[in-house]
Structures are given as C-alpha cells and as structure tokens.
Amino acid sequence: MKRVVFFTLIFTAFSFILFSCADMFQGKIPMDTASELGSLQDLMEQKTEITDLETPTQIFVSQGDSPTTITVSWNHVEGAQSYRLERAVSTTKNANGAFEEPSEGDYTVITSSVGSTAYIYDDGNHNGTYYEDVILSDPKYTSAEYGYKYFYRVSAENIAKGYGSSDFITSAGGTLFAPPSSVSASAGTYKDRIVVKWDKSPSDSTQSYSIYRSVNSDGSNATKLATVKANMSSYTTAVTEADRGTEFYFSVRAQNKDGVESVSSALGLGYARADGAPVLVEDVEVYEGRGASSTEIKIKWTGDPETNYAVYRNSSVDSALTLLSSGVSGQTNYTFTDSQDLEENVYYYYMVQPWKLDSDGATKVKGAMSDSGSKSSRPAEGFILGAPETVTVTKDSSGHNISWTPALGNDTERSSYSYEISGSDSKDGPFDAIATVPVSSLVEISGKYSYQNTVTRAYYKIRTKNSSGALSEYSAVQAPAPYAPKSIEVSCYKNLSGEMGSSWTANSNGVYPVKITWEAPLDSSDVAGYYVYRSDKRDSGYKRLSLNNDEKTFVITGNTFYDSNVSARTKKIYYYKVLSLNSLLGGANYSDVKWGYGALTASQYMKEYNIATVMNSQKKLTLMHRSGNTDKLGEETAYGNISGNLYYHASIEGLGGRVIMKYTDYADWYVNSNGALSTTAPDASEDVIGTAGGIFFLLNGNTNTSASMDTNGQMDGTVDCRGMYPGSVVYDNVKIKGGAAGGGYYVIKREGFDSENVSWTVGEEKK
Question: pLDDT tens digits, residue range 168-210?
Fold first, then answer.
C-alpha cells in the first residue's frame, strides 16, 4: 500500500520543551499516560501512515473455461477489506477483426443474480480475490453472448479505515466456452457412411470435440460416437446396411483442457443412401426470392413426377435444418413457395430431398439432399424484401435530413430499389407518402443513404420498393432529433446540501455529488427529455447516467441533474454532456462538453491537504530530522516544487519550546485533467483545474507548536488554501500531550461550507 512518512512535528511541537534542561535530552521523559515513556528521539521518530491502497498487481480472467461463467481473480492488496469489481462487454470488432476495447464509461459494477452488488470482501485469508461471473443461466448454441468479450477491472477498498481506494487494474477480454457452429452432415451423399462437419469453436482452450447422434429430431437421447482432437473439423461414421435411409441428428460439443463440455451445437441432419434411392436434385434455385416479395420466397427444381420431394431450409442465423414440406410430387418442373416465419435482413438457404416409397408401400427410401446450402458453390439463397434496418432523422434550418442503411441485397439488387418516405404529425398515424426516391438519385456515404426533406413532419417511416413495384413492410417510426441543449454548466467543489437534502451524501472516497444544469434549445417543442452522460476523458468513454444510480430511470425531464458518482475520486475532474430526446427517446445533438468535480467531506479535505502537500513539504526540512535534540534548534527554509517556501524556526522559550512553521505561496503539485499530481504545469491542451492555475493546494499561513516542561502544549495557526479545493485549516484546538498530538480537533473551513471540526486522529490510521 502507499505510505507517507509522517513526522510528529507535522501536527505538534517536538520536545523543545526540554531545551532548557540539556541533561535530560537523552533521558526518558514522563508522559501523561503513566504506562508510557518517551524521549525527544521518540517524538521525532518517523511513523508510517497508510494513504491510498496499492493497485492489485495482476488480474486474471478465464478464456473459454466455462459455457456459462467467467472467472476473475486478482492479487491480494495489503490493507484491503473489499474489492470493487466492474464489467464491460465488447460486442463489436474493428476493421482488423479484433474486439473493440471498452472505455471507462462502459464499465458498470457487477450485480449478482439476486440483485446484490458484487463488492467482494476479504475474510482475512486473502480469499476475497476471486469472483465467478455467471453470464448465462440458460445457455444455448444461439446465445449471442458466445460472440462477445468481457472485460473486468478491480479496485481495492477499505472504507471502514478510510483508506483511499486503489486505482483500477483492467483485465484482458474474457470469453465463454463457445460451441462449434455450422454443423452439417452428409444426407444421402454416401451409401455406407455419414460425414459430419463443423466450424471449430472460437475458444482457444478447446482440446477436443465429441460427436453425438440421435434418432430424434430434437436431439434427445443422443449417443456419443467419438471424440476427436481439436485440429479436426469433421468425422466420418460408418452406417450398416440396416441403417441406410435412417435419418440421424448429429450434434458436436467442444471439450476444453479441464474436461468441461460446451453446450451442444445446432443439429445436423444426416443419413446414408439406401439402395434404389431416387436421384439427386442438382438444379435447386431461388427464382423469385431475392427481395421479390416482403412475405415469401419461391424456389424451383427439375424432378420426376413419380418422386416425392421434401423441402428444407436453414439460415444465416441458424444452421439447423427446418422441414418446410415433406411431400411435393406429381410434376416435372417443381416450384415451392416458402412463407413460414420469414424475417427481414436474414438470408435463407434451401435444400431438396427426393424420396419414394419402397415396394412395401410404407418405407421411405430417401435420395441425397441437394447440394444447395450456404457452403455450396451454387447456394439456393433468398431473402424477403425488407425495410432499412436503421433510420435516423436530423433537422436544420432547411428542413429534415433523413438517412438510412440500404435494404438487404447485393449491389445490383440494391441499385434497383427505391425508398418510399412517409410522414405524419402523430406517431400513430395516419402516414402519408412524402416522396419515393430511387437509389440512382441518392449518394451512399459511410454505408448510409441521405435525403433532405423540406416537407417536414413530426414522424417518419420508410419502406423499400423493388423494380417490380413490390413494397416491404415499414421501418420503425422515427422522429427528428431535437436541437442540442444550451448553456450546460457543471459545478466545481460546490455545497449542494440545501438543494439535495438527504441525498447530499459523499461516496466512499469522500467526494460529494456534482450538479449539471442546462437550458432547453431555442426550438424545444419536440424535446421530451434528456440523457446525461459522464466520462473521465473529454473525447470518449461516455456513460449514460441514471436517476439516483438506479440503472433504470435514464430520461431526465427537467434541466438539472445531480450526479452522485459512486466512483468519483479526489484530484480528478469529470466531463459531462447532455443529449436532447424526442418523444421516441431518440436524439443526435449533444450539448457542449463541460467538466466539474465534487466537494470533499471535511475529513477527506484534511487528508488531501495534509498528505500531498504538508507532509511532502516537511520532508524537505533538515533540522527537524537530525538525531541530536539540540541539533534541531535553528531556522531554515524549504521551497515548493512549483512556488513559495516553508519557513522553519525552532527555539527555546522559557521552560518550554516553540516551533514556527510558516507557508508562503507554497505549492508542490499541479493537478492535470486525469487527476494525476505533477510538478509539470498543464499544457494548453489540458483543462486547468481550480482557482490557482491548476495547482492542487497553494498554502499560506502557520502551523505552530508550543509546549511546556511537562511535554504538554497547544498548536496554533491557520493555513489558507487555494487551488482545487479552496478553504482553510485551523490548528488552534489541537492539544499536545506527551510531546505529540494527543487531543482536540482541527477546524476545517471549506469554501462554501460551514466550519467543521475534524478529530486530530484523522490521518493517524496506522498499519
């Protein structure tokens, strides 16, 4: 843990009270407490004080260890009572195929399945450095979470003793143990075997794959056939003559180094061709189904009128086969229309299985499934005509700008579309067509089309029109994004107790809430509310804030928000911006970015003032650290890293001693925008904090000590503080007992607050 050297002299006079009795300098001097003795040397002894907890040195996160849970562990921190654990989820990849790393604003405190916050407590045996984060309670091969990465960060805490929380340590991305995907099985390709294929699990921890077979279409009561090494992505199983023509359903599970299995993959239908099976269909194709209709997809193939044909389908989102029809027959040129549960923005793939009845009239003899799936060189691929997935509307003085992503299709198909834009002054309609815009008159920029509409409406929706005049369903209704809020202001070190009442409470770091205010835009008729965002960086990492940190109420209907930031730290500023929302809770126009920071409790104020500046200044003195008592007499001056000086004068006064310590424009540290203390001034690109040009504490005043022959006495003096936390510290009520601070209190006068007494023990916590 971080420690500072604390000299008793910081708060008290050392035993100059003895300077008139030189023969006693090296002797033991009775103190107020009958059980203890001390000497001048004892009074000048360096003592170790805890300030901030150290950051955990290592953090580990599981990579594909479990299909449901990610395990996080970290090194123990000396002095920590608990650990704050936060998680961020990355769902997108960059152009290089790597997951985007989350910013600070993406992290949230983990809550367990029963709603409690995951503050992990140490039991004294270093057992509080481990957490199992259950991501999936009902895992399936379709669970999107298998395609995400999970990042964690941990901070050490000891709220009970008032230690400063450590900085966060952030993990690499953790993953769940994902199943294999795109499982398929040869369907009638061979007479004596079935070949099962799959795409490997993305989990690097995979050691092997197990292949299961079932005769049930839901995969139940499956039997394990074999286990193969992780470098394999196919398996061939022999089929007896008796089992030819029998449909089997195959699934594959991955195993990791610990023997843990993934969930089962999608089912792959496979069978071996029986003797006398009908011939393979080789010309399955979609002929009216690439955006030809919003409700159906049509396929065709050439066949035998004496043969029956079953039609199957899978999709770009699920590789499992769905049986659409089991008995199409009586034709030479076959067609089939699929209208079963089709969804927009999904590609569908069609396969045809020929079959006929055996001579007994009861047994189906199945031919090979057509080679027309997603991995075929000639896939029978189709999709329904769909509306644009994403539509946004912004406004300016010339009207409304409507932009949208192109509807599904290849470049040629997309170029044949038009888009019908409809508007209404009510979100429930009726909607009237405003314009039909061909793609040929649009310019695609960054994957979106854009249209400037001068016939403005309160609400819009769009549908796609193909070259034949068919129309898709409408997109979701959108409204113009309101103009940005004006005149945002954020409080800096402000007393908000009169406004917030009982909600005015400091967090565990001793930091109070911040107030954010703004004005509605000039044209606010379409403003239904606001979102407030915060980050510790000006240009990125913003997190949407909720009312009272409930993570439920995000829409702010007024023009004021109080941010009770549970993670706010001293010496750090935070950036805020506000987004105007329309009635659909959509928006695109943010306010300017402004920064601020919260006030401190009186106790935290004393710690920040004392540890960073006062203690640091007195380390620079030489006389007070000399071993001989008389050697400590005299005067000297120490200088601040940035400005000013500390004057020291120790002398004998009558039968006692007097120490004068005077600060004049003394400053050691700047506070940069990231909260770090530095002797280097913030440059022009950084935000200057406080009223003293970015200085943390600028000190003027005295911390003096007088003590009598019995080693008891009194401190006196006041130090005025400017900088990030303006105020003053009064020493007049600190008592000296036995040559050290032993009673009384400091008077902390924070700017904007009433004076508050703080016990002399603040900052005295010892290891």
Answer: 888 999 999 999 999 999 999 999 999 999 999 999 899 999 9
What backbone phi and psi angles, to 5 degrees, belong to 516?
A: -120, 130
Which of 469, 406, 395, 485 has its CA nearest to residue 436?
469
Give the pLDDT band of residue 51 (cuts 50, 70, 90). low
Considering 561, 596, 631, which residue would you say is the last residue of a domain? Answer: 596
> Which residue, among 156, 164, 134, has the nearest Cα to 74 in the 3D structure?
156
CA-based R_g, the chain, Å: 37
If asked whether residues 629 and 722 sit together in one domain, one would say yes
Helix (H, G, I), strand (E, B) or coil at 66: coil
For residue 134, what is the domain's CATH number? 2.60.40
The token duo for 747 is 């008077």
Q: How confident is the model at residue 612 (pLDDT cuts 50, 70, 90)?
A: confident
Q: Are residues 586 and 529 in the same domain?
A: yes
554, 545 contact by CB (below 8 A): yes
User: Domain range holding 496?
Assistant: 486-596
Burial class (CB in 10 A: 0-12, 13-18, 19+), 340: exposed
Report pLDDT digits (tens) over 412-461: 999 999 999 999 999 999 999 999 999 999 988 888 999 998 889 999 99
Overall average pLDDT of the 264-289 stretch: 95
Query: Domain ends where: 574, 596, 618?
Result: 596
pLDDT of residue 648: 96
3-state DSSP call for residue 696?
coil
Task: Tell me the C-alpha distance between 568 and 565, whole Å.
Answer: 5
> What are the angstrom distances between the C-alpha of 548 and each of 87, 118, 570, 745?
20, 19, 21, 34
CA distance 562 to 581: 19
For residue 494, which phi and psi values (nearest 5 degrees)? -115, 140
Distance between CA atoms of residues 246 and 323, nearest Å: 16
Q: In the prediction, which pLDDT does 763 show?
A: 63
Total domains in the fold of the chain: 6
The backbone torsions φ and ψ at residue 594, rounded to the nearest 5 degrees and listed phi first, read -130, 155
